[in-house]
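Problem 12. The chain below contains 577 residues. Write out its predicted structure in token notation.
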Amino acid sequence: MDSQCPIQARTVSFTDISNACANKKKGNGLPSPAGCDVFLPLNEVDSLIQPERVRLTLTELRRVAESKMSDGEMSDLVEYIMNHAKKIFLILVITRTIHNIMDVKKRNFEDQHLPVYITGQQTDNQAIHLTDIQGPINSQGTGHSQGSNMLLEDFTWSDAEKDSFYEKQWVFLAPNFSEANFAYTFENYRPLPFLPAATPGGGAGHFGTVQRLKLHFAHYGNIPSLQEAINGSSDKGVDIAVKRLTQIGNETDVAKFYDKENSTLEVMRSLKKDHLIRAIATYKKGNDRYFLFPWAKGGNLQDMLEKDERKLDKDLINWIVCQIVGLSEGIAALHANNIRHGDIKPSNILCDGPDLGASNKSILLIADVGLAKKHEEYTRYRPKITTTRHGSITYEPPEVSPKKELGRLSRKYDVWSLGCVFLELIIWAVYGTNGIKTFHKELNKNATPQFWKDRKVHSGEKVHSIVKKRFKDLKKDLKNLPALAHLVEFIEEKLLKVSVDERPYSTAVYDKLKTIKQDIDNIPEDRFNAELTKLVPKRETPAPAESTNAGTNLATQYVRSPRSWCSWLLKTRPAHK
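Solution.
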């Protein structure tokens, strides 16, 4: 005989709902982090709303209110709640107005009509209006896809009941993000399904902030960009980066920037390239604009170059080559869709995968496309040379020289920047973090720490002598590894070409790099051999006393520098291929 007793069903109570809510005030009295408002997760709605529990709650209501509701009416009401009004039922329970449930069914008031708001200032029957707010923006971006304009003027609820329903409904309306929708608009009062991250993170720029939070598992559909994160996450959700754009004074047109970046991010998501960041969603909430991204556990490439002491072996070389080919494919895909990134640099390339320095299984992702240029508009502002020693200016091509007349910029702008990043990747792989620090220390001795410099006597620009020296060192140390040496030569002779006309387009770069990778794959000894092991001691040489950079904390991912925003917002110039 089974000694266990069956679990007895019980009514749905105020306490049950309260206990099921996320982000309640902690036992120590401390509130949840900003952005983590109280909400009832969707899975808890289904957990609370079980037929027998709903029936028992209505039975208790019938007893207390001495209602003459028949068993048939009871069954119809339970069915109505289960199919159409789960959230409304819970709102009525938590506002202690469950006696209004029959009126709700009579008026065909359903969850799909939420949220409701109060219109007018009538003294008696103040109306509850079911408005056309605020679901996913439709494909035309001109309206919203859910809601109605139904006005229930003959509800007989008291003003206090209406006010309470309006105020409490928001707890039950945290949205569900899905692959089918990308851009959303939410009311100020609507909570987002965010939880505090186990490891807090955050950062701020002049025009935006980034916060590390967790997206509740019941509030996202089958979004591909989250699948890898899901595999290594807790059962409560996945870590995300919430990027909020802020407006300061009248100088920043946040709405215009948001619309442009939203368009670019949606294209990037549709391309489904492994090395392009895939945003989860974008949304407006009041006057603020937000972007949601998967949180990159490995920080960014700048972090890696400065701190990652990964072992030099054939796996590392293979990883480097794969990342170089993948990044070039990503940029070629953007260019094929008439999008130029415009600000490629290590801090704008994220490391998706194990934590910093963990393994060769991570993937480099091109991100922070706030300067991406779509269609015929390109904006650029060039302020006085900044003292930032590792900012965007380092990776800008010679065609932006202050000595040159402002003209049209080609997508080959990105090709130069890629060449700079690829060179640094190879320097790091062969000579380690100390090699990168030495390289930038020498580069920063000049007023402008760029990979090129102006000629003093003759007009024009030339590749920086320090860059030339690194190419010479690499070709010497890799002379017995022909395929790798070929990769270095290609970067030197094609990507870091001062003349824009002589620099190839990104599609040609990608095609050539694929060929080089195939050569390396076909001859494994060209990837790593005894000759390369001789370079290991060079990776262990003590670093220069002066660090070239304080480093970029994980929290700064996705944060745009003031200079980059100014570059985007000011001085329009046309673009060409």
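Discussion. The domain at 301-574 is CATH 1.10.510.10 (Transferase(Phosphotransferase); domain 1). Students who got a different answer should revisit the alignment rule from Section 12.3.
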